[in-house]
Amino acid sequence: MFNKPNAGCTLIGKPLSILLITILLTLCFSFVSYSQDYEWRKVSSSGPEPRINHAMAYDISRDRVVLFGGETRTNQAVAFGDTWEWDGSAWTLVSTSGPIPRCGHAMAYDDSRNRVVLFGGEAPPGFPIYDDTWEWDGSSWTQRAQMSAAPPPARCAHAMVYDSKRKVVVMFGGMGWNRYKDTWFWNGTNWSLVTTKGIHELQDHGMAYHIQRDKVVLYGGHRGLGLPESTTYHWDGSAWGMVSTQGPGELWQHSMVYDSQRKLVVLFGGNNDEGLQGFVNTWTWNCNSWNLENTQGPEVTYGQDMVHDSTRNHIVLFGGGIGGIKRGDTWIYGPPILYDLSPKFAKSAPKLVAAGESTRLITRIKNTGKGVSMACTLSFYLTKKPKMTKKAILLGSAGVPAINNGKSKKIKVTAKVPTNIKIGKYYVVVKLCVEDKNTNNNVKASNGKILEIY
Q1: How far is 360 from 233, CA to CA, in rounded Å?
Q2: 348 shares a domain with 326
Q3: What is the pLDDT of residues 368-379, one digit of tens each?
Q4: What burial letters (b/e) apply to 227-263, b meaning 16+ CB within 10 Å?
């Protein structure tokens, strides 16, 4: 049935140990706003088996990310029928019953009824395609009887979002025995066909609902026969309209989600035609234009899924593939989580450093805990006060690998002092970026440096 490879659905560490940080500072600088830079961070490699073409939804009433199904491919594709939940720090297997194992299905969280809604998908090998609707209430799946006289045809590789203004789940496109261009509403009881106009047939597109603008945003997808899309459409509740042909380029099998904190649609990953080139770029859409925000991230380009955790204000991504490799990692995308490790400052004379001068930052970290420390990032900021401030200037950051207990690592970074920095005395303030919020109590920094910029 599929005429393209991988089409549709066929296609770190332990908690941070106690660290004794000896920081030997000479200087390195780059001028960056520490509070605005979003970044990807891998937070887990345990939980669900590596997979692609699963579906996820964020249950805001229970503060859980819900994941169902997907497939893995070795010599033969095998579909999953397991349900997992992510609580912000770990995955838990909560059910192995419910929908038939499948991949390429779509899910959305119905906020008005506190239910995760699932529709369609297919089950390799053999590829039967489904037209069933299921709902997850936090403890079990229930198949919803189809009351409509003409329900949606069976399909996979479609997309669904929840329209909070109209209180309906919106579904568009996908493929079964045909590719579809139909838009449907699910109101909790029935599916209703709204329109077949506005967009041509698409599969493997991305969709997100922009709450503030009351628009469903659709980007990319595939029409078959070597025709990936690079068009952005808006759905206003009654009709589709094309709004842009500029942005991330021809993409399919990417992921999209709405970031309610920043009021932006976020797009990650995707492949170009034939899957010959994959991308790990992160883009944002403000309902007027696309912005390339990040070019580094999870090492996956297709088959992943992601949701926005509105409680913690970050995006959660799981799984996906790159080439023939399937991943089982969990990533988050959000602002750096910074813990203030401001040291006591030495009473010695400040080190003289000229504006525009290249200098060095040397960090030695020792793990005095009982286990292996989690990989993390240390950042060093320049401030006018002996504590972190919003006007801090980033001196430099160093990735710190996992360290065995009793061992230490020396990290070296070289950078340049901003030429436009004001002269005067500055404090070097230390920040730690990790996911365990309790680690701040276990980390200490040695005496810091005071710098005199001239």
Answers
A1: 49
A2: no
A3: 666 666 667 777
A4: ebbbbbbbbeeeebeebbeebbbbbbbbbbbbbeebe
Torsion angles phi and psi, residue 134, rounded to 5: -130, 155
Identify the CATH number of the domain in which residue 419 sits: 2.60.40.10
Cα separation, 67 vs 316, in Å, equals 11
Q: pLDDT per residue over 225-257, tens digit each?
A: 767 899 999 999 999 999 999 999 999 999 999
Q: How far apart are CA 40 and CA 296, in angstroms?
A: 8
Q: Rounded CA gap, 218 and 256, in Å?
A: 9
Across the strands, what pairs with 413? 361
- % helix, strand, coil for the chain, step of 5: 0, 45, 50
Same domain for 174 and 315, yes or no, is: yes
Cβ neighbours of residue 384 under 8 Å, at least 6 residues apart?
A: 391, 424, 425, 426, 427
pLDDT given at position 387: 76
Asked if 94 and 150 sit in the same domain, the reply is yes
pTM for this one?
0.73
Q: Which of 107-116, 160-169, 227-236 has the lowest mean pLDDT?
A: 227-236
Domain that holds residue 394: 338-453
Q: Residue 105: give its domain's CATH number.
A: 2.120.10.80
Tally of CB atoms within 10 A around 325? 10
